[in-house]
Amino acid sequence: NAGVTQTPKFRILKIGQSMTLQCTQDMNHNYMYWYRQDPGMGLKLIYYSVGAGITDKGEVPNGYNVSRSTTEDFPLRLELAAPSQTSVYFCASSYSGAPNTEAFFGQGTRLTVV
Amino acid sequence: QQPVQSPQAVILREGEDAVINCSSSKALYSVHWYRQKHGEAPVFLMILLKGGEQKGHDKISASFNEKKQQSSLYLTASQLSYSGTYFCGTAYNDMRFGAGTRLTVKP
Fold first, then answer.
1. Angle in degrees, CA B5, B6, B11, rounded to 5
2. Hey, which residues does B102 pair with through a beta bridge?
3. What is the SS3 assignment for B46?
4. Alpha-carbon distance A104 to B89, whole Å?
5. Distance (Å) of CA A55 to CA A43, A68, B96
6. Do A99 and B49 touch (CB under 8 A)?
7. CA distances from B8 to A50, B66, B104 (A)
8. Nearest-angstrom CA–CA distance, B29 and B100
9. Which of B44, B92, B100 lies closest to A42 in CB terms?
10. pLDDT per residue over A78-113, tens digit each?
11. Half-sphere exposure (Cβ direction) of A30: Cα atoms closer than 13 Å
12. Residues 35-94, chain A: which have Cβ within 8 Å of B?
């Protein structure tokens, strides 16, 4: 079982460039989340989605955009990359609402903006 | 609003016990606990729900005080494999995590 798959695993971007972090899950989960984790710090919620076509902002949405056109995919778009966006990005999914079910995490994308 | 965890770090010898605390300023429906090893993704440990239901790890115990909006994770007879950073998460439609507690277990 693949679970939650993130690509790429590593990426170096130059300031001002854009990129899309891919996340796909094969568990038919409705809920999906994007987090960022700065070195030695906790997980900050960027965006989340409760189903295809529905997205909402988390704690730190500025500089990011998301879309959810299918149940399986939840890409995260960085526009005009800045050094402050250097971080490890985790995608997660859960079957139903977060209160009741565990979240499964992808292996992360390590992004460096130089 | 993020939950608040304490302590920030704990160092134990194998076989010793530890308690990690999590509190929230918002009323909680459930609390999640995850462990993250260095360089890896967080892994689910437990969910504690209002009304006392728990789901998760057989060898780890936790409590959930709904009135005080607090949860505690109890690690007893710690093993080297318990080392890592522990996060509590408070969940509504989204899920927000505390800053983490770094646990180091030494031989």
1. 125
2. B9, B85
3. strand
4. 13
5. 19, 7, 16
6. yes
7. 32, 23, 11
8. 20
9. B100
10. 999 999 999 999 999 998 765 678 899 999 999 999
11. 11
12. 35, 41-45, 48, 50, 56, 58-59, 90, 94
- What single-letter amino acid sits at A65? N
Integer Cα distance of B45 and B73 in angstroms = 10
Q: Which two tokens stand for residue A2?
A: 């693949």
B76-106 pLDDT, tens digit each: 999 999 999 999 998 777 889 999 999 999 9
Residues in chain A, overall count: 114
Tokens of B24: 């929230």
Which amino acid, one-letter code, is at A58?
G
Give the distance from CA A7 to its chain's centroid: 10
- Tell me how far apart the alpha carbons of residues A3 and A112 are, in angstroms, rounded to a whole number: 25
